[in-house]
Design a protein that fits this description.
The protein has 16 helices and 17 strands. The protein is α/β, with parallel strands linked by helices and 658 residues long. The chain has five domains: 124 residues, HUPs (Rossmann fold); 111 residues, no CATH class; 128 residues, Beta-Lactamase; 50 residues; 151 residues, Histidine kinase-like ATPase, C-terminal domain (Heat Shock Protein 90, 2-Layer Sandwich), CATH 3.30.565. α14 packs across α15.
């Protein structure tokens, strides 16, 4: 079919078990190609589908597959009024043309229903109906052809129920006679007995027997002369006839309602399986889970053994995994010796194979690829156990496979998006690192190179104060570069998952004191105070890394606040945590910068930085180290001005044995 379909044209073709239905479908396919229209194949599944001959079921399956292979979407509707349901679907779906086979069945009487084609034309006069000649001997009007033998399934249980109910109804009637009730009440009781028989028995045969028996019992026990099948009044013949007809109609309606109820229960169960499948697949997070859920749902729906061949790590067909239904007694005699060969063929060709298909038709199972957008995720093998699937079961089975394929495709797309996101993020980090390093490292290197050149060529002409200033500048620039390299090394270890914590119990006040010995030498230009708790606060930590955090925070405060500013380090206990605060009374950090303050390479327009040139690594490193210790680090405003970094670390209790 042409892929550029004109959606204004929609052709609906009716499917049946007729051998000549193949010709009807082919005519619809050619018509859809000519009109560039969408094609839908509809099958009205009768409520007595289980009574249809196996030969007709197999032919129906082949007709449905032929329609699907030619680009038609197949829809199955349950019911017995074929023309009405076809017409209703045509109205709802916006059908413009209907293609149907012509039945050779003619109206036998003037009161009988018109043929199927005439009824469709009457119900949808606005739709063009194309009638393809169909052989009367071959066309099976499922809603009209009901074999008597399909309804006669005598069982001892039903016979006993029928006899007991007739006895009970007769007993109630005799009781009514003693109390002087009218014959109308007795007739009602007997008809009620027939209705109960229809409900409790499986075969229509007992409903008919009950109807006839109720008339005979009424004549025998309640009509003069009693205990005989004679009557003195001829009008009772009419009463008997009306009673028999009423009983038959009541039994027929009860049987039909019962059949419809059973069918509705089955379809409700299948709908629930489909709904549950959709819900479960949405929650699945791995491809293996998706395939196993699909297999389990298929087993629940069809009660057949299932075998799945998922992909292995090399994206090739892996080993088969068999899942059996709860009633399985082993299907060794129903498996194919060349099952693996067929599964690999299905995986490679992405086509169905096995029984009822053109490929490996002599197989004992059905093989279906789990594929979406030319990518195959595995193969599922359905062991039919010698029992073919109904058309509706096949339709639901294919729907579950479609849901499975879509779920696997979504997982694959999500995985690819995640990989692309990681690559993009890593590429952005590399780009930011190169840009920042190339830009920021040039200044200290240029300064060191210039100062070294002055010392090399003009050393003898410089006085002591100038030399001291040059040495100081070289030292500062070198220290900045050393800090930069250290932070880069720490960051690279953390990003690669190579940073190992060497945890030990340490007193937090000692760590703070040691950290202050390694901060920027310009610390003397600020007022630094330390406020410790009176008690010894022990924390299980890597003291070297916690010192690095404190050094970075204090250096940031030194380099981003005016000379003479106050820098305070406080340490206290709050419940089971140790809280360390590093605060200053500088100008603070703008609210627009705060959400990004711990992001790598973010410098907040050089207002907060890893060093005076601001590569933006220090605070990101602090966050990574604290989180590795299962702690937290936050930024709040200091009062009245400045900012406060708050570190919370879990505290370790010390038990002393006396």
């Amino acid at each position: 079919m042409d892929k550029n379909v004109d959606t204004s044209e929609h052709i609906l073709v009716c499917i049946s078990p007729s051998p000549s239905n193949f010709k009807v479908i082919m005519a619809a396919v050619k018509m859809s190609e000519a009109f560039h229209a969408t094609l839908t194949a509809i099958y009205i599944k009768p409520t007595n589908y289980s009574n249809i001959e196996e030969e007709d079921k197999l032919r129906l399956q082949n007709n449905i597959k032929f329609a699907e292979q030619n680009g038609a979407s197949v829809t199955t509707i349950i019911g017995d009024d074929v023309p009405l349901q076809v017409a209703e679907y045509a109205r709802i779906s916006g059908t413009t043309k209907i293609v149907v086979g012509r039945s050779g069945v003619k109206r036998r009487h003037f009161w009988s229903k018109p043929p199927l084609t005439e009824q469709i034309i009457i119900n949808v006069p606005e739709v063009d109906v194309y009638i393809i000649p169909d052989a009367a001997a071959d066309l099976k009007q499922q809603n009209e052809k009901i074999h008597l033998t399909d309804h006669i399934r005598p069982t001892l249980k039903d016979a006993v129920i029928t006899v007991l109910l007739l006895i009970a109804a007769t007993g109630v009637g005799l009781a009514f006679t003693l109390f002087g009730f009218s014959e109308a009440n007795i007739i009602t009781v007997l008809i009620l007995g027939v209705l109960v028989i229809s409900v409790l028995t499986a075969s229509f045969l007992y409903s008919a027997i009950g109807s006839l028996a109720s008339v005979l019992l009424f004549n025998w026990f309640f009509i003069e002369p009693k205990f005989s099948f004679h009557t003195y009044q001829t009008e009772y013949a009419v009463t008997f006839m009306i009673m028999l007809i009423s009983s038959l109609i009541t039994g027929t309606l009860a049987n039909r309602l019962k059949m419809n109820a059973r069918q509705s229960a089955r379809e409700a169960f299948r709908a629930k399986v489909l709904f549950d499948t959709n819900q479960l697949l949405q929650k699945a997070e791995r491809a293996d889970d998706v395939i196993r859920i699909t297999a389990r749902q298929i087993i629940t729906l069809l009660d057949r053994d299932v075998k799945i061949y998922p992909l292995d790590e090399n994206e090739e067909l892996g080993s088969g995994i068999k899942l059996e239904n709860s009633h399985s007694v082993g299907s060794a005699g129903l498996t194919d010796d060349n099952e693996r060969e067929i599964a690999e063929w299905v995986f490679e060709k992405q086509q169905a194979a096995g029984v009822y298909t053109e490929n490996y038709g002599d197989a004992k199972a059905q093989y279906h690829p789990i594929s979406q957008n030319d990518h195959c995720y595995g193969v599922i093998v359905l062991h039919l156990n010698g029992i073919p699937m109904e058309s509706f079961e096949n339709s639901v089975f294919m729907s579950i496979l479609g849901e499975c394929s879509l779920a696997l495709e979504n997982l694959r797309n999500a995985e690819e998006r995640e990989k692309a996101s990681v690559l993009a993020r890593n590429e952005q980090l590399r780009s930011n690192l190169l840009r920042s390093v190339s830009h920021d490292i040039r200044t200290p290197l240029t300064s060191i190179s210039g100062n070294a050149s002055n010392l090399l060529y003009h050393y003898s002409q410089m006085n002591d104060s100038t030399l001291m200033q040059i040495f100081s500048d070289i030292y500062d620039d070198t220290e900045w570069l050393i800090d930069l390299v250290e932070n880069l090394l720490f960051i690279s270890r953390i990003e690669n998952g190579q940073m190992e914590l060497h945890l030990s119990l340490d007193i937090i006040s000692d760590v703070i004191e040691e950290a202050l010995k390694h901060v920027d030498r310009n610390v003397n230009q600020h007022h630094v105070t330390v406020s410790n708790s009176d008690e010894f606060l022990l924390v299980k930590m890597d003291s070297r890394l916690i010192m690095q955090v404190l050094i970075n925070l204090v250096n940031n405060a030194i380099k981003n606040t005016p000379v003479g500013s106050e820098i305070c380090i406080q340490c206290e206990r709050k419940e089971d945590t140790v809280v360390i605060s590093v605060c200053d009374n500088g100008s603070g950090i703008p609210d627009s910068v705060k959400p990004h303050i711990f992001e790598m390479f973010y410098t907040g327009q050089n207002k907060v930085a890893d060093g005076r040139r601001g590569l933006g690594l220090g605070l990101a490193l602090c966050k990574s180290i604290i989180e590795a210790h299962k702690g937290t680090i936050t930024l709040v405003d200091n009062q009245p001005t400045g900012c406060r970094f708050i570190i919370s670390l879990p505290m370790e209790e010390v038990h002393v044995n006396e």
